[in-house]
């Protein structure tokens, strides 16, 4: 049987099941291995840790504890390296009050916080997100699965 790339609702369902069984993963790779096993059972495979991270953060399924490393070179950040949302610069007024200085970057969606442009995420500890934070979508509806054929709940249309 040929495997297929998982649809977003399939990936969300696998992430949700993994985090219901194990509340905390010490790395994104550990979560990816568990999600991949669940996807293979559904007949799909072939996802990346980045896609799992982005879908999980966007749906409110997971919270990340991020460990940072210092890079040798400065990198200009406009988008969040964790979830892809536009970063907000954090400014501080100078002592004499004449100007402002950029102090770092924050992301309002996932909590990414870099004190300088030299800092980059190096490790993610994944925890289950709070219930009720996920947006309403196909996998979080009553059936928790794909859309019904024919559009209606009984499969015969609207």
Indicate the low-confidence ranges by residue numbers: 132-158
**SSE order, one letter for each helix or strand:** HEHHEEEEE
Largest sheet geometry: 3 strands, antiparallel
Number of helices: 3
Number of strand segments: 6
The dominant shape is elongated
Q: Percentage of helical residues?
A: 10-25%
The largest sheet has its strands arranged as 1-6-2
Strand percent estimate? 15-25%
Q: What is the total domain count?
A: 1
How many whole angstroms does the radius of gyration measure? 19 Å
Average pLDDT reading: 79
The termini sit apart by 33 Å
**Which secondary-structure class do the elements indicate?**
alpha+beta
Could you outline the blueprint of secondary structure elements for this entry?
Elements: H1 8-21, E1 24-25, H2 28-42, H3 49-58, E2 62-70, E3 88-93, E4 100-106, E5 113-114, E6 119-128
Antiparallel strand pairs: 1-6, 2-6, 3-4, 4-5
Helix pairs in contact: 1-2
Task: Tell me what the structure shows.
With 158 residues, the chain is α+β, with helices and mostly antiparallel strands. The chain has one domain. 25% of the residues lie in helices and 23% in strands. The protein is built from three helices and six strands. The chain has helices spanning 8-21, 28-42, 49-58; strands at residues 24-25, 62-70, 88-93, 100-106, 113-114, 119-128. A three-stranded antiparallel β-sheet has the order 1-6-2. α1 (8-21) crosses α2. The longest helix has 15 residues, at 28-42. It starts with 7 loop residues before the first helix and ends in a 30-residue tail after the last strand. The model is unreliable at 132-158 (pLDDT under 50).
């Amino acid at each position: 049987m040929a495997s297929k790339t998982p649809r977003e609702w399939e990936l969300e369902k696998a992430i949700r099941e993994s985090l219901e069984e194990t509340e905390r993963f010490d790395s994104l790779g550990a979560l990816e291995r568990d999600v991949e096993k669940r996807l293979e059972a559904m007949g799909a495979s072939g996802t990346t840790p980045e896609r799992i991270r982005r879908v999980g953060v966007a749906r409110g399924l997971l919270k990340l504890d991020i460990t940072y490393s210092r890079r040798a070179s400065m990198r200009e950040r406009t988008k969040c390296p964790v979830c892809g949302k536009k970063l907000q610069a954090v400014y501080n007024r100078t002592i004499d009050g004449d100007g402002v200085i950029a102090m770092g970057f924050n992301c309002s969606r996932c909590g990414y916080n870099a004190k300088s442009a030299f800092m980059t995420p190096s490790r993610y500890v994944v925890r289950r997100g709070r219930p009720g934070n996920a947006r309403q979508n196909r996998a979080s509806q009553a059936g928790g699965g794909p859309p019904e054929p024919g559009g209606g709940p009984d499969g015969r249309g609207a």
